[in-house]
Amino acid sequence: METAIEVRDLVVRRGRRPVLHGITCAVPRGSVTGLLGPSGSGKTTLLRALVGVQVVAGGTVTVLGEPAGAAELRHRVGYLTQSPSVYPDLTVRENARYFARLHGLGAAEADRAVRDVGLADAAGQLVGTLSGGQRSRASLACALVGRPELLILDEPTVGQDPVLRAELWEMFRAMAANGRTLLVSSHVMDEAARCDRLLLIREGRLIADDTLAAVRATAGTDDLEAAFLHLIRANETAPADVEESVR
Ligand SMILES: Nc1ncnc2c1ncn2[C@@H]1O[C@H](COP(=O)(O)OP(=O)(O)OP(=O)(O)O)[C@@H](O)[C@H]1O
């Protein structure tokens, strides 16, 4: 398996608390990997570490063969943050074209990204006047500009209606089919079914890093919500990690 992301023994503290307790995982190239877990489990913190904007207390993070956050990765990795990072006083089109310019690309690339997220009809609208779901798609369009090899998407489908969610997932699948790598966080378990692989995280610890089929087989159920609960319980009965090691 050719690896896009490799994380070893990653420890992160936020405030005074350890938030990630020694995460080790890998994400293969050309796949859609879902990062699933309850609110507060550490998904955003892990994604921040992958793009190199999180101070880490220990471990290593390698992205496309480089240390996370390396300058060489700037045009190779797209990152969608959870709260939309777009300018409210610019239109959707202007935002995308601004990001395109940062990548040294022209207006056509920006306009394509706007179309891809289903915002062609709102391209001339100020971002500040969009609905929450539209604003999040405007932000996604900016992350897609330049067709980065690796896309790290923090809850990209939150606030989208079922039709749009399905369309976004089709787009993610098509990107992976073209050899790009996507890591997509969600706390909605039914989205896990659309992924090739799953990273299940709970309270800063990975409780699964496997294919969708293997997670279902290990848990003995096709229902991913039930599988997640099964894995949590199995994890709780396993010997506890030595908490002291991260303090
Ligand atoms: N700036 C911060 N200072 C202190 N603690 C923080 C900070 N940011 C996040 N945390 C804590 O770190 C833990 C993990 O947060 P994180 O945002 O990574 O979770 P998440 O799984 O992405 O949650 P959600 O699905 O709600 O976005 C939480 O307990 C959170 O309260």
From TrEMBL:
<protein>
    <submittedName>
        <fullName>ABC transporter ATP-binding protein</fullName>
    </submittedName>
</protein>
<keyword id="KW-0547">Nucleotide-binding</keyword>
<dbReference type="InterPro" id="IPR017871">
    <property type="entry name" value="ABC_transporter-like_CS"/>
</dbReference>
<dbReference type="Pfam" id="PF00005">
    <property type="entry name" value="ABC_tran"/>
</dbReference>
<dbReference type="InterPro" id="IPR003593">
    <property type="entry name" value="AAA+_ATPase"/>
</dbReference>
<dbReference type="InterPro" id="IPR003439">
    <property type="entry name" value="ABC_transporter-like_ATP-bd"/>
</dbReference>
<dbReference type="InterPro" id="IPR027417">
    <property type="entry name" value="P-loop_NTPase"/>
</dbReference>
<feature type="domain" description="ABC transporter">
    <location>
        <begin position="5"/>
        <end position="228"/>
    </location>
</feature>
<keyword id="KW-0067">ATP-binding</keyword>
<dbReference type="GO" id="GO:0005524">
    <property type="term" value="F:ATP binding"/>
</dbReference>
